[in-house]
Structures are given as structure tokens and as C-alpha cells.
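Hi U.,

Before I forget, here's the chain from the pilot set. I'm dumping it here mostly so it's searchable later in email.
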Amino acid sequence: MVNSHRDAFFKNPSVVIQQLYEKHGLDSIEDKLIDEFNNLVNLPTDIDSIPELESADFGTLVRWTAMVQDTGYGTEMYISTSSNDKCLVYGANQNEDVQFDNDQDDFSRIRERTNIYAVEIPGNNNESKPIKEDLLGGPSHKFPLQDRNNKLGVLLKLYDNDSGGSLRPATVYEFVGILGKSALPRTLDSIEEDNVQETIVPSLHVLYSQQVDNKPSSVVVEKDVGEHIITWLADEVLGGDKLAAHYLLLSLVSKTQSRKAGSPIGTLPITLSLPENENTSELKIVKAIEALTNLSVYLALSIDKLNERRLYPHSNGDDLNSGSLQVSPSTCLIFDERHLGQGTLKDTGVRNVHSIQNVIQSQKLEYNFPFSAFPFETDLITVILTDHSKSIIPGTIHINVKPTSDNYYGELSIPKHIKLWKEFILQSRQKQVTIPDEVSSIIQQSFVDERQAHKQNGGTGEGTSSDDLGRRITMARLLTSLDDGESNTMNNDHWNLITKLEKEREERC
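Structure:
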């Protein structure tokens, strides 16, 4: 009996909502529907039993994992019952005729809900799902990545306005709700224009939402996984350069662990300067990062592109335009400057470079509005590619790549155990590394010794700076996170290897 009632709720929730309305009336019907839903579905355990939105029919219960793009639509008033007494809460009975008379009884039918726009997760490297034709589309300015086909955007309708206010832009959530169609809220400018047609988009009347973090789905217990990844990156991706392979893997496992005086602690943005090459094939490193991460976005930078489209979210007042930097946490941003070209950065280009710089140095992205700008914290991985020239974007660790072969272009063969490696990287990003007192003392003493040696050798300036020390400690933490299993304690070997890597990198500069 429970299963048949549950199946009915999945396939035609309007019937269940109407039954609740006929039994209890409008009073607290939203709460009663949530109770009914929770009695039938145990979340998050039963989440996989709910059909996915991408292949579902309108009017059914669906689930969808998506990134919130625009929380600025605010609340809307809607009519909760139709002219023939059908309940319209949570998108039920959407084809019913709605009439409103300006009397006291009809005002009691008015209720409030929150509108939020969400899009498919930008840069998702997992296997894509086929999407029904009637779900595709939506305003192009709402999607962060303009060069992608088959875009899916949905207008979320939340009946608990408090939960609507807690959803953050550029954050991924799992939603469960009833799939429908709605008109996208119109801007003030479009309302004043008589000939502007409504934009009809898929809508989701949300019953459940839960933030989703990019975490491993299983525990990796295999030995020496980190070393295997470094060897593969060096031999198959970076032309034999093991130093560059170390830095790339350390960058991929980095994350914002904390903040000190507003600055992120734990990130490792890098610039890989490759030898100039006339080869027009794709760099293997781009495909390698896609294979090793769940989320990555490749952005080929040129003066013209920087001047043309804003990479940061911006609004003209009522509607938030997305930008390529509006991506979810743990996304790897790959900026390719190898074909930057000649020219002058105009206002949009300067603002774009400033936004990229803020993401790299402060892990913050400003959302621009007509009279203000609001910074939102990010947690993004950054890899910049250049052709043996300095990046136009400061704040990264610069590595001159020294390949011993030219096999870093062309097709990349993906190892069969790439899923294990991807899980290992996610696992490493979650580790909380500890530094024993004896290792901390070794670090401090090596810092003092290096500065003294620099002075004794007649060097100018202070030699190893406090910034250098901080970077090495961050790198040693990241190296420790690559240890097997749950091991998370830094030792002297970690510190010595990082010191060696840094000295070799500096010798190349």
C-alpha cells in the first residue's frame, strides 16, 4: 500500500496534493505536503529512487543536482487555488484556469514563494546525461560557459522563504521537487516594453534541497597512488618533466583550508611556462586535468576575448548575467595565455584580469551591480599556461617546464585506473594535515639557516622570505596529503623534498 501510494506521488503528485487540500484546506498545506513527502521518501538514502530531471516528464517528482546561478529574483505572489477549487501549491494542477476577483475571499488565496535560477554544473567532467529536448534552452546570459551546447537552466520555486534565503550563488545542491514550466521573472525594463514576450523555462517546485560537496565516494587504500600519478603526468603529459608534474599534482589537491586576515591559506595557483611550439594540436595537460578532476573549465585568453565578454557575474539591476568565473567550489580553472596576442586591454578587459587576479590571490569573486559590488568567497584551483613568458596575472608560482621530448601535444591515452586516481585526489583534498613539534622546529631552523647562508655568501636582500616559507609549508602540507590511506602527519622527508623542489624551480627561473 505504501509503495503504491509512493509510486502515485512520484508519477502524479498533483493528485496527492489535491487530496491533502480537500482534507485539510489551505492552512499549512506546504508543511503537510513536506510531511507526506518525508513519510514516503527517506532522504538522502532514497535519493537514487527518484527519477532524474533530465529525462523526466512535466508534472512528476524529480531530482536534480545543479549550481545556483541567481538568487536575486526575490519573492513572488501567486494564486494558490484555481477557479474550480483545484490546489495550485507546489505546481500542482498547472493546466487549471486561474481567475482572481478583487474581493476579500480571493486575497486569502494569495501566497508567497521565492524564485531562484539554477543551471547545470559548469565544467562537469563526469559522463553527461541525455536531456529531453523540451527542457533545453533558457536565456544564454544565465549560463557561465557560452560555448557549451545543450544548456539546461531551471527556475527554482521555494515555498519556505527562509530556505530560499540560505542558498548561495555558485554552490551545488541536490534538489527534489515537482517539474513544471514557468515564465522567467521579467526585469523592470522588459515590463515597460509592450512587445517583449515572456520567456518560458522549466521550473522545479522544491520539496528538498541539500548542499553537495565535491568529495570522494570511496576510500582509496592502494599504495603509492600519488607517485603513480606524478610518473604518468611526467612521462605522458609533460614531456618527461617530473618537477612540473609534482607542482601540477600539488595544485590539483590544494584547497582553501582557512583564511588569515582575509587571505586564503592552503591554495597553490601555478603558472606552467611551456616551450614555444608551432604544433597546433591540443595540449595533453588540458585533457589530463579533465581526466583527474570532476570539475574543470578551460579558458583560452586573448586580448580580444578579454575585451569582449565579462568573465565575472554582473547585473543591470534585476537580472544577473553569469560569467565564466561563476563556477562551483573545487573547479579547476585552466587559463591559456599562449595565444594572448597584441593589443590594449579596454575597460572590460582590465576588469576581467582584475577578477581573475582576485580569484587567484584572495579566492573571492566580485558580483557587480549598478551601484555596488559584492565579493563572494570561492575555493578554486588555478593553472595558467604560457609559452615561456610571464603571465599577465600575478600571484602564481611560476614553473618553467623543461620537457625532454615533445610528446606533450596530441592525443592522450587515459589509464584504466583513472577513476581511482580521481578518487585519490578528492581524498587528498579532504585530509587535515598535522605538523609535529619536532618537524615544526626543523622547519624554523632551516629557515634561519638559509637566511644566514644567504648573508654569508654575500647575497642581497633577505634571501628566503617569510612568503617563501609560507609557500613551502603549504606545499609540504599538500605533499603530506598525498601519502597512502589516512596518513596525514608531516615528516622531515616531506619538508626536504619540498625544499629540493623549490630550489630546482628557482634555478630554472
